[in-house]
Amino acid sequence: MKIIIQLLFLLLPFLCSSQEYIDVFSINYGKSQETTFENSSVNTSISTFQTNLILPIVLNKKYTAITWVNFSSYNLQLFPDSNNNHLYSTNLRVGLRINHSKHWSGIYLFMPKVASDYIHLSSEDIYLGGTALLKYKRNKNFGYSIGLYGSSEAYGISMTPIIGLYYHSPNERFEMNFLLPNDADVNYRLTDKTKIGVDFLGHGNSYKLTTDNIRSKYVENNSIDFSAYIQKGLFGKKVLLRLKMGYTLNEFRIYPIDQKLDLQILALKFGDNRTLFLEDKSNTILLKVEAIYRFDLSTDKK
Known about the structure:
mainly beta; 20 strands; globular
């Protein structure tokens, strides 16, 4: 059991920090305030749903196998004169965590996904990706990481450099967890079961789109959520409930299915000669509820 705890100690949902827990399962639902299309009187809102399941399997002192399944969806009206569109993404992440030395470890994942409106689903909706992340753990309170994520998308190849930072105060009240450019969380423990915090979540994806029963377009989505939250722990803090309220910036750009760019690195786009068919932007208030099942390693070690 001691070996298992030592290995699991290095795993976490964002795969970079040194915190003494693993969020094995999480589920959340969010809904934005209604917004108006540009040059139109039609209102629309955006509903989001996401769930994650992480299953680490200890092989030996050096290697831990990782399996991570994620499903997410958007429900929104992309066109002013159409019904709501449903966009789905199912992600599988499999790979290894390797303990290179006392302070250095690495996460290496193969990350295929299926992303589209799931109408006329086919092998063309499958995209391949992967990530490599090196992490330095200075001590139980501080660590940082650096890595690279790459994926094929409906619009071409996307590459994202990753920089991570984790800090937990010695009194265990204050915590920072960054995995930039996509995730950031800062929180403070008010009582044994209650925390308050702020977080940032940036994400992008692409989806093949069916209109009039024909696959002729794809959607490129980029979203940024800023939230403040309050968290309550239940059942010995194994189940966490969060209520979030914040502001969301969403951009959905629609292109012809046969037009791609050469390469995207963060916000830089190379060889982008695509014809924009439609752009849907919405910057609104966001309300989200979240439930997490957490495995606390520090309690087990005690």
